[in-house]
Amino acid sequence: MQPTIATVSLNSAIDQTVTVPRFTVDAVNRVEAVQVDAGGKGVNVASFLAHFGHATAVAGLLGRENDAIFARHFEQAGIRDACTRCDGATRTNVKIVDPVLDQVTDVNLPGVQAGPEELASVSGTLAGLMARGLTWVGLCGSLPAGLGADSYARLALQARAGGVKVALDTSGAPLGPALAACPDIVKPNAEELGAYLGRELTTLADVQSAARDLVAQGVGLVSVSMGAAGAVLVRGDEAVHARPPRITVASTVGAGDAMVAGLIHAATLGLDLAEMARIATAFSLGALGEIGPRLPAIARIDALARDVEITALG
User: Fold this and answer.
1) Which of 162, 181, 200 is the last residue in one of the domains?
2) Are 252 and 296 within one domain?
3) What family is this protein classified in (predicted)?
4) Active-site annotation holds for 257
5) CATH code of the domain covering residue 217
């Protein structure tokens, strides 16, 4: 089956989730459980969409030294492996989960080096996927050392010129140039969006105003996640606040990526803004209930969606 959705993962990661009850800094800690997953934002978004039956592909960069875990994951998940291999090892992100103290500590290692040749290879791969019927591309995650801040902007313009819709989930230096390409969906969190705009977003009104600023600049839909407070979605003149129910959080790995996948999934169904918010929030909640970047059964996502409270904003 030809992929209709592709993600671009330029800085993929091996996610190592380590469970350590009562984790203590500057002390010997005993590990209760370890889980290792192929991850990174683009990989996670494609995996979540494949879970819902979408034909997906992942383009991007992987280090040759440790790509086997990704190749195995793509085969098992039914995802088209369209990644360019480059020298070095894909980075490892370690997440130390303390279920007793309800704390999570992140340790992110450096990844591959890349340059114009690697980006050109990814661009060529994307062009090939577009020529065979791609409808959406997700540009997700950080950039590896050596790539310019305009890398996602260039890929977004390429996709839009070919009639392919673009979802963007990045932060820091790549965010501004990519926003100028007017993607169809953008999903920053409140801290990331505040850093881009140069102001703190401390209230719901602050977040809504900031999201409207991006829509006014040409972005199709803005979804700003706010942790346990939910998310604000703005499209055109519409705005809604999605408030999630309380759940037991097993791990935060992939929760934001699940929301991106939910937004793309909902967009393919042509849903209105309120239903998009409901489904995207349910995807995120589903990921929060799992260890590592994965979703529960679709029936569980449907049940979570019914418990999401949607409020229209003026």
Assistant:
1) 181
2) yes
3) Belongs to the carbohydrate kinase PfkB family.
4) yes
5) 3.40.1190.20
**pLDDT per position as a tens digit, 157-212:** 999 999 999 999 999 999 999 999 999 999 999 999 999 999 999 999 999 999 99
Instruction: Let me know: does 242 contact 276? Beta carbons within 8 Å.
Output: no
Interval 241-292: pLDDT, tens:
999 999 988 777 789 999 999 999 999 999 999 999 999 999 999 999 987 7
294: burial class by Cβ within 10 Å (0-12, 13-18, 19+)? buried
The reply to whether 156 and 190 lie within a common domain is no
Domain boundary among 119, 153, 181: 181
Which one from 150, 206, 257, 307 is the annotated catalytic residue? 257
Domain membership of residue 208 as a residue range? 184-314
Long-range contacts of 241-244 (CB under 8 A, 24+ apart): 241/204, 241/208, 241/277, 241/310, 241/311, 241/313, 242/277, 242/278, 242/280, 242/281, 242/308, 242/309, 242/310, 243/308, 243/309, 243/310, 243/311, 244/281, 244/284, 244/285, 244/307, 244/308, 244/309
Quick one: 298 and 254 in the same domain?
yes
Q: 210 phi and psi, to 5 degrees? A: -65, -40
